[in-house]
């Protein structure tokens, strides 16, 4: 269990060709991480994220402005999410090979209340929220006016929130002004603006 009374801020530099490079490499089903932010640079191999590499637990109220570069299952917040992720945003950069996403590289768990304004690049299964989503996603957004969709080294950029499904009312692109007017429970709260 990690929970900070106020937001704890971490500046990371991880540069190893290993799996599970993140602030927390693996979070088990009984694990919980809450109220923190990450900045810096993370390099790794598979299951790489700025906050968690592989998640089976509960992650909430986390945000990141880090740059994340790795191979497979690479996400701005979590590399591979099989648990719960809520109240999160990402404003860094993600670059990888397969299953690359602004929030999670792949998701078979739940994502609730998230947004991404970061550049995302990959070779296959590339999404602004998650490269591949077989779980659930509610109130997950990416901004159209801040994302740089220019090609990088002949890599792909996302076509939408997820590679394997089309956008819908709960997971879609919005512009910056619309993002803060969305009437979801948490995205419109003042602390989202304060973290910018």
Explain the overall architecture:
With 196 residues, the protein is mainly beta. The chain contains two helices and 19 strands. The chain has helices at residues 176-179, 190-194; strands at 2-15, 24-27, 32-43, 46-48, 52-55, 58-64, 67-69, 72-75, 78-81, 84-90, 93-95, 98-101, 104-107, 110-116, 119-121, 124-127, 130-133, 136-143, 171-174. Strands 1, 3, 6, 7, 10, 11, 14, 15, 18 and 19 form a ten-stranded parallel sheet that branches. Strands 2-5-9-13-17 form a five-stranded parallel sheet, with no helix packed on it. The protein starts with a strand and ends with a helix.
Q: What kind of sheet is the major sheet?
A: 10 strands, parallel
Shape: globular
How much helix, percentage-wise, in residues?
Answer: under 10%
- Coarse structural class: mainly beta
Distance, first to last CA: 26 Å
* Average pLDDT: 86
Poorly predicted runs: 188-196
By DSSP (H or I, 4+ residues per run), the number of helices equals: 2
Strand content: over 45%
Integer-rounded radius of gyration: 15 Å
Name the quaternary structure: single chain
Tell me the number of strands.
19
């Amino acid at each position: 269990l990690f929970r900070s009374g106020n937001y704890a801020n971490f500046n990371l530099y991880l540069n190893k060709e290993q799996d599970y490079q993140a602030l927390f490499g693996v979070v088990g089903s009984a694990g919980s991480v809450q109220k923190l932010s990450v900045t810096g640079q993370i390099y790794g191999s598979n299951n790489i994220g700025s906050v968690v590499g592989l998640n089976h637990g509960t992650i909430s109220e986390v945000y990141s402005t880090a740059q994340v570069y790795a191979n497979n299952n690479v996400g701005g917040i979590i590399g591979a999410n099989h648990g719960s992720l809520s109240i999160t945003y990402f404003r860094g950069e993600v670059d990888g090979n397969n299953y690359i996403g602004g929030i999670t590289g792949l998701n078979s768990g739940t994502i609730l209340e998230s947004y991404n304004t970061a550049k995302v690049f990959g070779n296959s299964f590339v999404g602004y929220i998650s490269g591949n989503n077989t779980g659930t996603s509610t109130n997950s957004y990416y901004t159209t006016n801040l994302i740089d969709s220019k090609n990088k080294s002949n890599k792909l950029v996302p076509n939408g929130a997820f590679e394997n499904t089309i956008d819908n009312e709960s997971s879609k692109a919005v512009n910056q002004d619309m993002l803060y007017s969305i009437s979801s429970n948490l995205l419109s709260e003042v602390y989202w603006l304060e973290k910018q």
